[in-house]
Amino acid sequence: MDYQLSDEEQALFDRVKDFADTIVAPAAYEYDTKRRLPLEIIAQMGELGLFALPFPESVGGLGKSYFQLCLAVEALGRVDQSIGVTLEAGVGLGVMPIYRNGTPEQHAEFLPDLIAGRALAGFGLTEAGAGSDAGATQTTAVLDGDDWVINGSKQFITNSGTPITKLVTITAVTGERELPDGTVKKELSCIIVPNGTPGFTVEEGYDKVGWHTSDTHPLTLRDVRVPAANLLGERGRGYANFLQRLDEGRIAFAALATGAAQGCLEEALRYAKSRVVFGHEIGRNQHIAFKIAKMQARVHQARLAWHDAARKMDAGLPFKMEASIAKMVCGEAAMDNARDATQIFGGYGFMNENPVARHYRDSKILEIGEGTTEVQLMIITRELGLVA
Questions:
Q1: What domain count does the chain have?
Q2: Structural domain containing residue 278
Q3: 370 is catalytic
């Protein structure tokens, strides 16, 4: 794999980094305290074409690579993980399922606004008893004439309740299938539920430890009726299709975590060179210098990991194991760097207006979301042919 950025890739990263430093970073603390997604910043991201990056021009996209989307996510994650994950989830969980599995009619109805960043979409997979075990889904969808009637609930759904949220794609049990060995398995399908549909309630947002600016809600569906044509992809293929989206999404999630680790490194390095204690900069103390050296090593390792996975994905090569390795390595790098940066700042690092304090709160979810570290270890051991 080639770990060097092309001129085009470097230009994109520099452009998004400048946007992050000049527009996103100055507003990050304000919106974090308000716990509100800044729609004006999302609109500017749309104007920059960030939501359009990995989609072909035939559907209104920019025809760029998934790798380039991940570069943008990393650049944003340096200064505000909430904004970075809004892009990551907006594309990977919102637009990508409709682009990959949607009909021409669904493309025409939903893609223009989503790809332009004028609207957002969520993906309703997780339930109280069905997170990592998506096969335990309890939400049901029953055909009644020309409609699906949906009942159930979802939780932890990103981008599901913003003023510009257009839809949520949900997974639901649409029947049962008998396997060749005689066992019966749930038939899981994906169905598009437009926001505002009667019976579809976006509940009050969560009081989260971090990612305060990111929009996250539980959802309730009571006798929700949507047209049969809102089935997304082949009936009974919802679980398989979503697993593929998760593999892709883990790479972008890893890029987000790398950005967070990089942001903590930059803040710690700046402070170590400017903070004077006992007559000299604290960065001259070996224990501080070594801590920062380890932070740099984590960032380097993390970036190589997600680059490798993304390059393989774009090249059409198998990447499942590499995506899980990247997600695990990068999430741990972000958490470890946030902890070390906070320690280097001392009391200042405990103040919420300090970017490292926000990264400290935000980074824990990077070891949980898109599959916990333990789930990634299960995937890696399976890919190696071991029993897990």
A1: 3
A2: 240-383
A3: yes
